[in-house]
Amino acid sequence: MLEKIRDGSQGVIAKGILVLVILSFAFAGVSSYLGSTTDVPAAEVNGDIITKAELEQAYQSERSRMEQQLGEMFAALSADEKYLQSIKQSVLERLVADKLIDQAAKAMGLRVSDEQIIAAVKTEPAFQTDGKFDNDRYQAILRQLGYQPQAFRDMMRVDMTRRQLTAALVGTEFVLAGEAKQLAELQGQTRDVRYLVVDSAPFLATAVVTDEQVKNYYDANQGQFMSPEMVSLEYVELNAADFAKNNPVSDEEAQAYYEEHKAQYVSNEKRLAAHILVMLGSDEAAAKAKAEDLAKQLDSGADFADLAKANSDDTLSAEQGGKLDWFEPGVMDPAFDAALFALNKGQHSAVVKTDFGFHIIKLLDVQPGVTVPFADVKAKIVAQLQDKKAVDQFYSLQSKLADTSYEVPDTLSETAKAVGVDIKTTPLFSRDNVPAALNKPDLVKAAFSETVMLKGLNSEVIELEPNHVVVVRVKEHHDAGTLALAEVKANITERLKQDQANEAARAKAQELMAQVKDGATDLGLVAKAKLGRGAQDVDAAIVGKAFQMPTPSTSPVVDTVGLANGYAVVALDKVNAAEGVSDELVNALKQRLNAQYSEADYRGLIDSLKANAKVLYPVEE
């Protein structure tokens, strides 16, 4: 728990810790803090109850975590109720596992003393100020979370007691250096191979499939021909973008807007600058003294252009007598900019320091800001006013859309009439092939919801994009089921022909394999030296086969392997030892193996405890 608090304290303390403590509390299984209930529990572990309130709290915490981790991807996944149900079931199994660990720890007599809890609280950085425990901070955080100190310490006791058991178990795992090195050497192996692909395509022409074969395959593989649940929708759509073209803007309106907002259409003043630059170099004081001397010469009447040519470190502008370019406000370094726009035409500044060095700036000319003619911005103003009118119209109609679709929930006719648009329809679609224009998580979830799909009512207003909403209702609904033979006959026929062609390719590959074993060298096998496990230029099936084959002795090891469309003959000529196995790689593998072994130990513990426990999942009658 304290590790979670420590992580959460790095941001907005109250919000971060709240999520993490709730997560820990939800998984702690301290049902006494949630109060007793007469509802059917979510699970019962050796007589200890996991309430539905605990499950719901833990489930919501897990959802929040996944939303943060997956972002928009989770929004798409959560449109499927089955996916959410699988998450909830996984959370319940974790609650059961925690309950089993709590019971095992109690049976072993594991305890955490008050002194240990107090020490953990005092050493927790989240409760410290300047490295020391701050009781006021501790109390303030608990108040923000809505916990009393004693309840919080009790939760910590459960968490720390549980970790006594799991940490002791996980801490016993270790990985030998030789074990990790052996794995590194195995992973780094390369192999010298030859291979020949036998494509199945030439054999397709002679493949023959009868209706009886198709029927037999269909009957034996019904599970492959399940059709997903499908719906078609009626919907009423409001999109502000569609209204813009129907909201003409008169010349008088555009002109009035221009006059009212004329300040927006004034171009910035521009100034033509020149400068003399003395770069900082290694001796800043000397550079400043040089610049100040040049400024004095200018004050005494020296020619700016001549001084720039002779003294400026900006060689490009020096050739032009220091002349730079036209600048608008805010373009140059702030100090340079401020000095330039404080000058009158023909004046030069005092010495100005920037990151580039010391400048003396002269204002050569000024282009006053000018008002852009109405004709030049008319099209832009018209578009802005059209968009504004469209958005205003959209919000007015959206209110009618929401009200009418709710008040008359069993049809969209009244809704369409109220907002003055036509009812649109979709073809049948499943969750996996939603029409692109409507493929948004909220809409998919609504389309397959009980309200829309089963009760036949209008959905709530669903936002597809900003200023773009729909209300949907089901037009047609097909339950998931088995596709008729006629619908899949062509696909089965093609599949069986491919199987026949693959079988013919396999027979040919077997024939070629025998020839390779007999020493044939004119078969056109492709040679690949030092083939690695991650090779991208060789079919993955061939790579996998090469690394499954035993080390050859006096003659190559030869075998065949199935490909997506055909077979291949693979001859393994040599196994090459790994090159350059570094200590860093070995250490990384040790850490990975240790984590895998620890996870396996934990899973083994839970499986063992569960096998000897009475775990019930009551169902409400």
UniProtKB/TrEMBL annotation:
- The name this protein carries in UniProt is Periplasmic chaperone PpiD
Q: Which residues form a coiled coil?
A: none
Has the keyword Cell inner membrane been applied to this entry? yes
Q: InterPro entries recorded for this chain?
A: PPIase_dom_sf, PPIase_PpiC, PpiD_chaperone, Trigger_fact/SurA_dom_sf
Chain ranges of the PpiC domain: 268-365
**Source species, please?**
Shewanella vaxholmensis
Family stated for the protein in its record:
Belongs to the PpiD chaperone family.
* One Pfam match: Rotamase_3
Q: Which UniProt keywords apply?
A: Cell inner membrane, Cell membrane, Chaperone, Isomerase, Membrane, Rotamase, Transmembrane, Transmembrane helix
Recorded superkingdom = Bacteria
User: In terms of one coarse class, where is the protein primarily found?
Assistant: membrane
Write down the membrane topology.
Single-pass type II membrane protein
Q: Where in the cell is it found?
A: Cell inner membrane
Q: Among its keywords, does the record have Transmembrane helix?
A: yes
Q: Which SUPFAM superfamilies match?
A: FKBP-like, Triger factor/SurA peptide-binding domain-like
From the record, give the transmembrane residue ranges. 12-34
Q: Which Gene3D superfamilies match?
A: 3.10.50.40, Porin chaperone SurA, peptide-binding domain (1.10.4030.10)
